[in-house]
């Protein structure tokens, strides 16, 4: 598994982290984020680690101790990293001096979550949103739960697929999550093949479909610096970019 970066026009700028046996090689990437100082941080399910690279693709840090299955991650405005451990049911805060390759802190900040995967941090407020994957009961299908915490990790709001279905016109199965520039929670929904705005944390949950056509199986999303929305669609193996206009 390797990391590939592209410019706005789609031209490949750089690729690194090819699969191999070296300590900084990426075995099975699960998520990626970029810190404000330009470092690329990846969760690697292959050896249950978190790996950081500089802008040239050089491995600068690998954190392996203490994780069961690190999954989702997002960078804060201070270049710290919030990450989920799906198997441990926990949320961690990782602080490091990436330029020196030094780990400063790896602290569990929330536990007793149910298979947490996707996570996003609001750059303005510091709020954190997590998508938990709940186990199926009997013949029913599994469901997801969207959980929002304040910057101090106090619970703000929480609702699973069943609860959201009571409020919204269709069942929602969230696969990815992000905050937009205004601090609203945005999720991809594979049931309706859509991208949906759930509102700001204090408004949660509201319902506003942003993209309802043209997606097959959306599994990832992020916002660019110019507020364009980038969606990863695994249904047709494509990356789709939407303007905010």
From TrEMBL:
This is E3 ubiquitin-protein ligase NHLRC1. The lineage of its organism: Eukaryota, Metazoa, Chordata, Craniata, Vertebrata. One of its GO terms (biological process) is protein polyubiquitination. Keywords: Repeat. The keyword Repeat applies. The gene is NHLRC1. GO terms for cellular component: nucleus. PANTHER family: E3 UBIQUITIN-PROTEIN LIGASE NHLRC1, E3 UBIQUITIN-PROTEIN LIGASE NHLRC1-RELATED. GO terms for molecular function: ubiquitin protein ligase activity. The keyword Repeat applies. PROSITE patterns: NHL (PS51125). SUPFAM superfamilies: NHL repeat. NHL repeats lie at residues 13-56, 213-245. Coiled coil: none annotated.
